[in-house]
Amino acid sequence: MGLRRVLLYAVFALNVYMLLVIILFKISIPQLNSIVQQIQLVMERPSMLEGRWLTANFTPFATIKESFSRNLAPIQWLNLYGNIAIFIPTGLIAAILYAKHPFTNAVFVSFIISLSLESLQLFLLMGSFDIDDLLLNTSGGAVGGLLALIVFRLRGPAKAVTAEESI
């Protein structure tokens, strides 16, 4: 594996770490002991999960529709477009790492990471599960994949393959 590819994996790992900090820890420094405490809490009182399931949004587009049905406050704009924006780098990096099918891989990787983070929020009682966040995050990954596709096309088909091999 070449140095460029190793560096790209390191950047990808940093990106996933940043998503974890932003989504799960709400921009505070992650503490392993807080995760352990949350797991212990859920294990001791599993009934707490029931409340989380009841408040989770499993209806696609419900939160998005609600946001647009009234004037959006700045925090709602940030939530709506921020969920897209924070996954653009994920899709871009995934598309470069797996350049054989860049768009498909960007969407797939973004979906899996978003689903994992949303599920962790639900099961660790550290936020709320919202299917719309999953849709918006995956859309951001798709935008990143599209950006990579555009770059690959501008460089030409031969150069896109060469870029994959050199990374």
Distinctive features:
167 residues, mainly alpha, 9 helices
What does this structure look like?
The structure is a single chain. This protein has one domain. It has helices spanning 3-24, 32-44, 47-55, 62-68, 74-85, 88-97, 102-123, 131-155, 157-166. The longest helix has 25 residues, at 131-155. The termini are close together. With 167 residues, it is an all-alpha fold. 78% of the residues lie in helices and 0% in strands. Helix 1 (3-24) runs parallel beside helix 7, helix 5 crosses helix 8 (131-155) and helix 8 crosses helix 9. The radius of gyration is 18 Å and the shape is globular. The chain has nine helices and no strands.
Write the topology of this structure.
Elements: H1 3-24, H2 32-44, H3 47-55, H4 62-68, H5 74-85, H6 88-97, H7 102-123, H8 131-155, H9 157-166
Helix pairs in contact: 1-6, 1-7, 5-8, 6-7, 6-8, 7-8, 8-9
Transmembrane segments: 7-29, 80-99, 106-128, 134-152
Domain VanZ-like: 18-151
Protein name: VanZ family protein
Number of helices: 9
Low-confidence stretches: 158-164
Q: Tell me the helix content.
A: over 70%
The portion of residues forming beta strands comes to under 5%
Q: Rg from C-alpha positions?
A: 18 Å
- Give the overall average pLDDT: 89
Q: How far is the first residue's CA from the last residue's CA? A: 8 Å
What form results from the Cα inertia axes?
Answer: globular
User: How many domains would you count in the coordinates?
Assistant: 1
Instruction: Give the assembly state of these chains.
Output: single chain
User: What pattern of helices and strands is seen along the backbone?
Assistant: HHHHHHHHH
**Number of β-strand runs:** 0
Main pleated sheet: none
Sheet/helix structural class: mainly alpha
Organism: Paenibacillus septentrionalis
Keywords: Membrane, Transmembrane, Transmembrane helix
Protein name: VanZ family protein
InterPro entries: Teicoplanin_resist-assoc, VanZ-like
